[in-house]
Amino acid sequence: MNLWQGDTAFESRPNKIVTLDGAARRKVVGRSSLGKWDPDKRGHDSLQTILAQNSIRDQNLLPLRHGRMAATPWTYYRGAAAVMAADLASAPHTGIMVQLCGDAHVLNFGLWNTPERNLAFDLRDFDETLPGPFEWDVKRFLASLVILARENGVPDVAQTAVTAAYDGYREWIGKYATWPELDIWYDSVSTEQLVGYATTDDDHRLDELIEKRAAKRSSRGAFKKLTSVVDGVRRISEDPPYRTHALAEHYDELEAIVSQYQDSIPDHISSLWSRFDLVDAVQQVVGVGSVGMRVFLTLSEERRTQDPIFLQIKQAGPSVYEQFLGPSQYENHGSRVIHGQRMIQSATDMFVGWTSIHGVADAGPLDFYVRQFRDGKVIPKGDMIAPRLAQFASACGHVLARAHARSGDAKAIDDYLGKSVKAADAFSAFAFAYADQNNRDHAQLAKAVQDGEVPAVEGWP
């Protein structure tokens, strides 16, 4: 089913917004119906949906992916965006379209440096980005709070966190509905604002800790930690199976990937990049849902001073939402990721780009996107934010609202949500119902692993 047909918030080109009557959309999908979850209508088997994603992945890494997803309900949720995409698509949607993050779980919000070297708090993962109904991002975000709270032994804070998250989203959508478009696009959430959300009596030095950690998360910091001198030559250190020099037979292809990447970046960045030489590259294992997708970490050095820069080159496949929302307008899925990122984020790493290659490990044509590695990136950890989950979730709600206001019609969303508690209660009900569904789906995978039906190994560095 192609959801571009009919009355949506996008015309044939998804980056062109048209106005919808948000209140009128309640007659299409009532707000109370957003809280309903019926497992009998999901129309797919969650385990088969997970396994169907394996065809484009590195087959040698699949047991690692299965092992990570089977570890806990939370790690399962992180890797099961495809499962939730199918579940969300099994029910009617509002038709109020935005650029979806596509995987807006609570740990996919974080800090990194803008091109001006200022830390900003924003969404940070765009592998599944695609234009789609605004409520799909909200539902994935809110359900993640329940699952994370349970995972970290604080289930009693789940309701407070869901309420704070929705209230943060609702408040800022309401504000953005009255703002001029340019003000929305210039808006960002700084470190100071994040601290303002998160500060409690024991957090008076939180801003200092963030700045200190971000300073270490840089190419220069990674250079000290991840490299060593081998036979007089600087190399990225191996840590099998998470970092391996498995590219000897593909080095020509990797150089072609880097060369094609240069064609995707603006001329001034291309000029800067031309002053660096590729020194080394490894294959890398990252995340949960990304395990098995081909990820390369490259080390380049500036020709004059040998200043290092690391780039991460990550395989991009079709968004898990495309089979329900129609194909992306971008032929290269790396391009889809980067264009979505630029639409959503307040400021984007100036080195982001995309490329493609044929014949890596006999996998056929593959698309990739490129970004800096650890450019001031501070990623939250579940056990660290669990005690202050409500405050953190409120900040995330602000960021998600800004992303949706940039790419969609904030007034239509504001009018649809309205002033009553109907939408709030519905989103909350869905979050808890879907967290329970996630537990059942995780148990299905864990049993398949235990019974030997799905190959799996433990895999956390």
Automatic annotation (TrEMBL):
Q: What is this protein called?
A: DUF2252 domain-containing protein
Matches recorded under InterPro entries: DUF2252
One Pfam family per UniProt: DUF2252
